Amino acid sequence: MRFGVYGLPTLFPPTPIGVGFEGAGTIVEAHESLGDSLIGKKVAFAQDPHSKSFQGTWRQYLILHKLQVIPIPDDADLDKFSSSFVNPVTVIGFIDVATKAGHKAIVHDAACSSLGKMLVKYCKKLDYPLINVVRREEQVKTLKDLGAEHVLNSSLETFENDLKELTHKLEATGFFDAIAGDTTGLILNNMPRKSTAYVYGALSGKAVSYSPGGFIFLENTISSFWLGPYLRSITEEERAKHIGTIIHDLSTGGAIFGSDVVQTFPLAEFEAAITAANEKASEGKTILKPHD
């Protein structure tokens, strides 16, 4: 992000800046106004990098406001809850945005990611139609094994025809795009008229590409999704409901929002952890354990 992957080199404050958006841990000290009852309690947490109090979560100790933490069960596995905020709330947010916008079905690319797998399971639970787009045949099998009904391989010559046929059949007019670049336009052009792409990532490292004709004649639109603005756009009751849904799932086995932790690293080995995470992104989470 700091080097302009998102086309905005000054997206975050100048360095030095903390690293890491979420995690889980144990409260070791609390402000006197809160009393001592929170000491020893386990919590999950997330930080907004635009906040003046942002420190980054790649550290042993972190100062947080009480509204930034989510209480979790005393017997919770901190490894599993360390990624219990960003991806799970994003998944719920996708469907919330889609249903409020009237999309009868949605498309999701880079669908074999940890987030993509959660989305497959969440949509299956809700019986909400989801078209998954992946790049390799083994990823098709992975998502099918999770219960995905519609999985398309973008490497096949028939991809665009298959996508157009399926999106029109399901009336899929919402597209959550993690890739950007040429992919945004390619998929949007094979969706029904008046479709919307919600760009939430830039895995291609390129700017979104789309022809003016798509906007003018097909009445398609390109929007965005980012967790911070989304959470600020919904009510306190909706936020509480989302968090409650996630905590209940993770506390009862994590059938939907649980992520497989494939590797752990001590904080001092963060460079190796980054490499490993990139290599095994579709297999599960690589986490840092600052106290190891």
UniProtKB/TrEMBL annotation:
In terms of superkingdom, the source organism counts as Eukaryota
Q: Which UniProt keywords apply?
A: NADP, Oxidoreductase
The record ties this protein, via Pfam families, to:
ADH_zinc_N (PF00107)
MF terms from GO for this chain are: NADPH binding; oxidoreductase activity, acting on NAD(P)H
Decide whether keyword Oxidoreductase is in the record: yes
- TM region(s), chain numbering: none
Q: Which residues form the Alcohol dehydrogenase-like C-terminal domain?
A: 115-229
Q: What is this protein called?
A: Alcohol dehydrogenase-like C-terminal domain-containing protein
Specify the species.
Euplotes harpa
